[in-house]
Amino acid sequence: MQAGETRAGLARQREVIRLAVGAKGLHCLEVVELHVSGTVAASHPDMLRIYSMISSGMIKGVVVADLDRLFRPDEPQSFAALQIFRDMGAKIYAGDTEYDLTTANGLLYSSIRSAIAGFELSLIKERMQGAKEAKRRAGKCPSSAVTMPLGIGYDRKEEKWHYTPDISSVKLLFERFDAGGVRNYSQLGREVGLCSASVKCILRNPIYTGWRVIDKKRGAKRKSVSGKLYRVKVARAESEVIRLKVLDGIISEECFQRVQAEMAITKFNFINEFRSNDTVNIGTGIAFCGCCGRPLYCVSGKCNEVRKKAGYYQCKAQHYSYKAQLGGCKQRNLNRDDLDEAIIKLASTILRSEEHLTSLLAESFQRSSEVVTPFAQVAPPSAQLDELSKRDKRLLEAYEAGAISVDELRQKREAIRQKRAAVEQATRSSSSKDKDELKAMARLVIKGARRFKALDDKGQKKKIIHELFSEIHVRHNQLVSFRFRPVALTAASPESAASTTILLPKPIQVGKEQATLPPGQRRCITCDEVKAQQEFYRNLNRCNPCRSKQERMRHEKRRAKAKSKQASPNQSTESQ
C-alpha cells in the first residue's frame, strides 16, 4: 500500500535519485525499483544481481534515496552487504551523502547509519508488537479481517466481536463430525467448499465456544525443505497465554471437547510417513537458477509403480505460487537425485587437491577481470604494455622522419623504459600476492572438507557442502558456476573472493546427457529408446507399446481391487 498512487514515497525517492545522479555527474546504467519492504530488499533477486554486477566490476556505485532503502540490518550478518562495496571500491550515494567504504570515515559513517536504521526497525517492531499485545489482552482485535476465522467478524468502531453468515458452515462441520460420524476432512471440506487443512483448523479453534485463546506466537526464522523462509509458530509461556470470553458460543463446551478427543485419536498415514521420511535434498537453499538467478525449490512428484516419490527441483519463477507474479522461467525441472549427484560430483571435483582448486580459482578470477566495463579508469597491465610499445614505435618513426633529435629520442625512450619496468614489477608482485592468497584460500577450503570423500552418509555430505558453498548455479541441465560461503574463507581473506562467482571451465552434466535427435524422432522416457514420431500418441513422452503396457497394469490393479471388494462381504457373512 505504501507504493500506491495516493502515496508520495516512491515519487520522492525517484526525485532524490534523479537529483543525485545529476549533481554527481554519474552515468546511470540501470534503474531498479523494488516494491518490497526494506527488511527483505538485501535478499531480493534484483539486489543479488546488483551485488553480482558490483563484484564483477560492471558498476562502481549504487544510488538510493536513503541508506535504509538499500538494506536494514536486523542481524549482525546483514552487515556483510557493505563488504562487497568495500572490496570492489564501489560507492553508495544516498541523496546528498556519498559513502566511500574504502576510507575510514566512509566505513564508519555507513556502519553507524546502517546500525541506526536497524535499531529504528527493531524499535518500530517492538512498539507495534507491544500495542498489538495490549489490544489482545483487552479483548480487541489488532489484525486485519483476513486473519479472522471463518464465520467470525469484528466491528472496529464499536470494538465488538460478532458472527457472520458463514457461521452456518461451521455449525454444519461440527454437526457432521460429532453427530454424523464423518471423520474424513476432505469429505467435510467438499460439503462446505473448503480444503481439508482449513476444516482441521476450524474444528480445533475454541473461539466457536465463545473463548478466544492465544497460546502461540511467531518464533525465529527457519528455512523449509523447499528453501522457503518462514517464521515457525512456537508455544507461549503460561504467563503469556491469553484466554478471554468474547462471544456467546454457538458450540457447546461438551460438543467441542468430544470433537477434540476424537481428533486426538485419529491417525493419518501421511503424517507418519512424512515423519519417518529420511530423504536428504542437498540442493535446497544453495541451488540457484542460472537463467534468472532465483532459487530452486524442491517439489515432490507422484508415486511410481514401486511407491517411491520422484522429487524434482523447480525454479521459483516456475512455482505455482509465483509463476503469475514472476512470469515463468526457461529453466526446466530437474530430477532431484540427478541434481544432488551432480552437486556431490562438483564438491568431489573441486576438493580434489589444493593445486587443482588454486588453478580453478585463478582461471576464474582472470576471466572475471577481463570483463570490459565503461567505468574502468585504469587499463589492465597487458593493455598498458601494448600502449608503451606503440609509443616507442612512434618515437622511432618520428626520429627517422627528422621530427625529433637523438637526445629527445633517448630521453623519451628512457621514460618509456622506466614505465614498462614499473608495470612489469607491479604485475609480478600482484601476481605473486594473488597466487599466495589463492593458495591460502584453497588450503583452507581443502582442510575444512578433507573428510568429505570418506563419508557415506548423505546428510553429513550435505552439511559440509552447505558450509562451503553459498550458491551453486544450474543452467538448463548443467552446473556452470558457484560461490563459496564467506564464513569458509574468513581466515584466508582474499580480496573479493567470497563475493566472486567461480566459473567452471567444464560444466558438470545433471543426469544423462541427451544426444541431439534427428528430425522426426523422439526418445521414450520409459524404455529410453529413440523411435519415430509415429510411435508416440500426440505429445506424450511414452511410446505406444510402453503406454499400452502401463494401461494394462492399471487395468489389472483395478480388477484386483474390485475382486477384493466383492470378496470382503462374502468373508464377513461366512464369519457371522
From TrEMBL:
MF-aspect GO terms: DNA binding; DNA strand exchange activity
Domain Resolvase/invertase-type recombinase catalytic: residue ranges: 1-139
Region (Disordered): 547-576
Superkingdom per UniProt: Bacteria
InterPro entries noted in UniProt: DNA_bind_recomb_sf, DNA_bind_recombinase_dom, Resolv_N, Resolvase-like_N_sf, SSR_resolvase, Zn_ribbon_recom_dom
Record field: compositional bias (Basic residues): 555-564
Name this polypeptide is given: Resolvase/invertase-type recombinase catalytic domain-containing protein
Organism: Brevifollis gellanilyticus
